[in-house]
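It would be a great kindness if you could assist me with a short task in structural biology. The matter concerns a single protein, recorded as an amino acid sequence and a row of backbone structure tokens. Kindly check, if you would, that the fold set down in the tokens agrees with what the sequence suggests. Thank you for your consideration; the sequence and its tokens are set out here:
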Amino acid sequence: MNKKIFVTGIGTEVGKTIASAVVVEALKADYFKPIQAGDLEYSDTDKVQELVSNSKSEFHSNSYALKTPMSPHAAAEIDEISIELDKITLPKTNNDLVIEGAGGLLVPLNNTNTILDLIQSDYHVIVVSRHYLGSINHTLMTIQILKEKGFNVSIIFNGEEHKTTESIIKKMAGVSVIGRIDNEPYFDKMVVSEYAELFRDQLQSL
């Protein structure tokens, strides 16, 4: 059975897109970002496609491509539309699929739904955590919400190693850690491929 992996973060700018590229490359999976808000001329889909080396992965169009880099509900309002869950449909593929969220779990899509509502029961969720003041709280709350909903959850740490933060999260979260992506001087196909190799066994066993 093909895997569906949902990549979420503990907030914005924590490294979801780089992590998604690594997972896509490791599994030679397809990639789908349901909602892109802003940066339409160089979207997250473009970035992931640029970082992936294999020829099997396919990159699917957003269900919603919004012009303003804001929370999806606000960006949609500016575009004078409303985001509807039933218009966000998974692309048809026989391949594993990596789905990248926007911001954190409780980012609003409209007046009633959040990113959390995009995650289906058969998805495995990868939480990208990056160290900053407050990140332990944000990471543990994110994981607690997902576990309470019954999801299988793993973590990828991103950025400079912070041993005490990572250690307490591992102990208290009780979920598998796939690895950590360091603060690299740059990310290109080769760097992403190296991380994909490091993480492949763990990802294949999800």
Q: What stands out?
A: Residues 4-204 form a domain with the Rossmann fold fold (CATH 3.40.50.300). The chain has one domain: 4-204.
